[in-house]
Amino acid sequence: MILFEKRFHQGIVGGSTTLTFRAWKTARVKPGQRYRCHPIGVLEVDAVSIVTVADIDDGDAVRAGFASRLEILEYIAAKTGGGDQHSMVRVEFHHGGDGDRVELALEADIDDATRKQIRAALARMDDRPRTGPWTKKTLALIAKHPRIAASKLAAMLGRETKDFKTDVVKLKKLGLTQSFEVGYEVSPRGLAYLQPKKRPP
Asked: 102-194 has which CATH code?
């Protein structure tokens, strides 16, 4: 997963921000791979290289979402405390869409009709002899243990990791969960379903 401050999200989705510099000791991403960028979707990495702060020019600054070279240098200095010879990982990327059904998952308010559709879909998932009802237990477990490895969550339920992950994908397709580099979270849509707002009397 690659994280960005909210102020960069619009540029990333719009395609004007296609570069980032990271103070990683070694590159944590690889060209050609896709990485989650919560909450705006998926990024595909195009190129990775190691540079120094002194190598960053005005064109790099604009592609990274800054107005000028001076602005990005001040930003990096505040974040890292490093000088001109400080090493940075230069990552070129492009926005790869909502690979995690992000727009659906971010619905924080659902109406009665949608709630009924979700309930019916979960009931169909629960109707299987081999495991019996599983959706409520799985959502509750993810809510209680966010971003915990799937293998550990599966063990808590006495299930095989592969089967557990397959089931979580089904919940994700309904927009109820979101996947991260490690583990999952119940999405805003999932929370809206699990914790409906109380209507005024």
From this structure: 1.10.10.10
Return the amino acid letter for 174.
Answer: L
Question: Which neighbouring-strand residues pair with 20?
Answer: 91
pTM here is 0.53
Residue from 112, 102, 88, 69 nearest 20 by CA: 88
Residue 28 phi/psi, 5-degree rounding, is -105, 0
Q: What is the mean pLDDT of each run of 10 residues along the chain (201 residues)?
A: 89 92 93 82 90 96 96 94 91 76 74 93 88 92 93 94 91 86 86 76 55
How many residues can be counted in the chain? 201
The gap from C-alpha 70 to its chain's centroid, in whole angstroms, comes to 30
Amino acid, single-letter form, for residue 41? G
Distance CA 22, CA 19 (A): 10
DSSP state of 177: E
The residue among 195, 178, 193 whose CA lies nearest residue 119 is 193
Domain coordinates of the chain in residue numbers?
6-95, 102-194
- Who's near 11: CB < 8 A, 6+ residues apart? 17, 65
CA proximity to 16, closest of 74, 88, 71, 93 = 93
What is the CATH code of the structural domain delimited by 6-95? 3.10.400.10
Q: Is the dihedral of CA 104, 108, 111, 117 positive or negative?
A: positive
